[in-house]
Each structure stands twice: as C-alpha cells, then as structure tokens.
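[Solved] Which block belongs to which protein?

Original post:
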Amino acid sequence: MSMTTCPVCSSQKLEEMLSLVRQPVYQHPVSDEKKIPPPHFMDLSYFYCQKCEHSFQKSWDISILERIYKQYYYTPRPADVGVLFQNQFVQAFVDRFHLSDSFDSILEIGCSSGEMLARIAGLFPDKILAGFEPNRETAAMTSASDVHIYREFFTALTSQKVPQKFDIIFHRHVIEHVADFDDFFAAHQNVSHDSTRLIVETPCLNWSTHHLSMAPFHIEHLHVFSICSLTTLLKQYGWFLDAYLVTSNGHLIGFFTRINASRMIPAVENPFGLSVWIEKNKSLIYRAAEGKKLALWGAGSGGVKVMNYFNLCPDIIVDSNPNKAGKKFVGYPGQKIVAADGWIEQTSENSESWLIIVASTYFEEIRQRLKRSGWKGKIIQPYAL
C-alpha cells in the first residue's frame, strides 16, 4: 500500500521526514532464523503532514506485518523486567485520570500475555476483564485465569463475537501499527457505549523530535502520532480528548470520552532534525567505542535499529530477558544474544575494557542495575547522545 495523502487528515501537504535504508523487518530475536521467510530488510520512508503534524510510512506491505504479529513478534518477559512503562500507565490510570473504582468492565486491545490486565485485576478485584491478542503463543501465556482473551486481531468482524459493551477500553502501543483506521474504530463502536472511556498509549512525535529520539521509527510503526494528530484522528470517530500526559520515556497517554471539548495542544518542534541526528552521532559512538569491546544491551527493536543506524557489529548482545538468550536476529547470523545476569557476573572484573551501548528505553533501570553490580565500564545511551 502506498499513501499519497495523510492517513489522518487526508492533507496533501506532505514532506519527507526520514529516509531509512535497509531496515530490519524482524525487530525481535527468534529461535531459528533460518525458518523466517524473506524479505529480511526493507527501505523505509517516513513523511510528515504539515496540517495535522502526523508522521507515517509512505508505503507498507500489510501481509508482512500480519506475519510478524502472528508468529515472530514478541518474547514474553519476566515480571520484574521492564516494569517502568507499566507503572507509568497504572499511575495515569488511577491518579491522572481519576478512574478509581468507577467501572465494572474493561477491555485491553493488544493485551500480550495479559500482564497489564493482571495488574488492574489486583487493584480492582471483581471486574470483568477481557483482551484481544493476535499472537497465539503470547496470548496462551496469560497468568490471569479470570481474563478472557480473544486470540485474534481486533477488527469490526472479530469484535462482533464479544457479548458485551465495556466501560473502559485501552490499548498500549497498538494504534501506531494500525493500517485501517475505519475498521479499527468500527470495532471500538461494537464494544463501547455512550459512557465508555478510551485510553490510548503510543510513542509521542512531539517528544521524539524535541529529544531527537529515533526509538519510534521502525517497520512495525506505520505511524508516529503527535498530540495533534492523535486528537484529530480520534475526533473523526467520536472520541474527544479529555486529558493527556507525556511520560519521561516519550509515551503519549491520552484519555478520551464521548464528550466534545476543546483542549490546548502543543505543536511539534523541529520535525526534520532526526536525519541530521543520525549522521552527527555516528562519529560520537565510534569515538566512544575506540579501543573497547562492544556490548549492545537490548535484543529488541531498539537494539537492531541501533546496529543499522550506526553500522555497528557488537561483540555481544545482552538482554535483561533470559527468555531471549540463545536466540538470534533474522539477517544477523553471527550475533549472539546472552542473558544479562550471567554476562555481568562473568565480565565485571574486566568491565573497564567494555563499552555498553544501551539500545533500550529502559535505560535508567539498566544503568541502576549495572551500578549496583559495581560496573566500572563506560555506558552510553544512543537515543540520548
């Protein structure tokens, strides 16, 4: 599919924002990369809409994306890894949006293994909880026995199987993957009522351009929403912005209701500075790595993007999630992924000979973990150079 107008507001006032050559198709490691069919790399082009401040891929192949989400998408993590984002969402859910106990039912779209629903169940017992998750392997790992998970994509057709309307619907890091907004929000209509509240979390373009962060830009993200473009899109489907926040990690969490109200929305700063940022920081990373052994921390989309952006060939790839150990990135047969705990213990005596590039948005958690271990080597975060 190729876009000639903005997918949010249909404007033709578009300008190329990023051209990314030979980007990896598969962002997450797999057990046997030889079984993954090509293509393994694709060129990406992001455009920027001057009217609604939306960033989006100019073209994509939906069949490739669906194959990723169904089969090769995600390695479930232990309960103690990567909890910062969950904590921020729960805090917004309870404190910022004042939802407290004012609902009886809740639906999560893209619920993975149900870890967020399980946390909500612990805070608000005796609620009706349900979720949609197209990755069957991940959905099967849910630990909450009282959560009903529909193991399929959330569409206008599949949502008709749901026997009730929900008081709260939420999705975290889903809307940036959606190719057909009409179908997606028709599904919302099928499972909502006039008083339903909708919470949407997605990477924030305002934050990314201000902080010069490349984190949101990869093949799975067809869109990178600004506060303006997310508000513009949802308004077309009868959802109106009531409140929002942008987290310290650059995630936009918007709270929407059926009540029409106007809100002040900040503009995007410097949308065309990211291409310059990549070139500028190549030399900084190369200088930092000179004479050092290189460890890339982050066996996910952040790690594989950093390898490509900066043309890096690390000596080792480290990840906090032990479930990724022994797996490989598709298209990178020589790279080895190891679990962080064992690697830190084995390497700590010679830590000064290593440079760790933390290609993960969990940078602060990882930095504190290394500090507690007595790590003396250099640590840098390529997204914040």
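(Second protein starts here: sequence line, then its structure tokens.)
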Amino acid sequence: MNYLYSEIDRYNVHGLNLQEPESAQELIKPWDEREDVSKYADTVVDDQMAIHVPFVQNVRLKALLLKLSRGDTAPRRLRLYANRPNIVDFSDAEDLRPHLDITLLAGQAGVTEYPLRTAAFANINSLSIHLDNTTGGDMSRVYFIGFKGDARTPPKEATDKLDVRAENAADAPIDRVAERSAGAQTTAR
C-alpha cells in the first residue's frame, strides 16, 4: 500500500465554501508535511466543506488520511462520492447516495487513517469529499487530506514503443498445409 501523493492532480483540486478557494490545494501535502498546521482550509458560511480530488490515473483506494482541527471546528461527518466528473455540490450531496458515509473520530491530535472497502474504491479517477456537522456549527477546519492505495496501471514512458506483432498482415507467414488440414479434422466423441 503506497501513499498516493504523486497520483493526485493537485492543480485541479478545488473546493466549495472555503474562505480561500486555493486552500483546497494546500490540503494535499507530501507525506513528510502531513502534520504541518500552517496551511489549512476553513469554511466561510457554515460548517459544510466540499473538496474535489481528481487523480492523474485510476487508483485503488485503501485508506483515507485526515488531519482535522480539534474542538468546535472539527467536522464529525464524512461523505465520499467517487468518479464524479465535477465536484458534488451541497444540494446534489443530499440527493445522491455516497459511496461512504461515516462519523469521524473526535479529538484526534494527529493524522487519522480511515480504512476503505477496497471493492467499493477499486477503480477511482476522482473523489468528492464532504465534511460537516461540527460541534460549533459555524466553521470547519481541515489541515490535511491524503490517500493510501495503488495505481491501477503503471504510466507509460514517453519512449515506450507500441509492440506490433506483424507490421503488415501480408508479411505474416501462412502455413497453407496446416490451414487445410485443420478444417478436415474430426472431433473425438
């Protein structure tokens, strides 16, 4: 199981109801910066936050990693929507059935790992993450979002050539004797 930082299309990560829209990208951090609390995302109007995370290729997600604030600004509910082309906004979130809807652990000081059912998250190209239900109800704060899992297909190198068995079908050798005799054989009964 690998940390999937390099598989996230970080420049296209975006969020809804954030004080600073670009703060959604700052939640995706390298592994060695996961405990950093200098960069975070806060909500604006209420405690609902939506973050859309696209991947550069399909991935199999095995765990979601979160570092949340503590106290009144810590979200208590998490909903995940997989493989949506755009972010799932708040009105759609009420109508759509999430792939995962859980209550988050309260009072965690560090990064918390939430295991995912691999079968439900086996071929993921994007994820919409909804966080809400803080104790205070006015604001949510998140410091870090990360994922563990595997890339589904290794990326092709730019220098890899396409392997073509017979460049021209007319150049492929044909055994006419074997071709005729194959049609004349009877099957055993």
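Accepted answer:
You had them paired correctly. Confirming on the second one: The first helix runs from residue 23 to 26.
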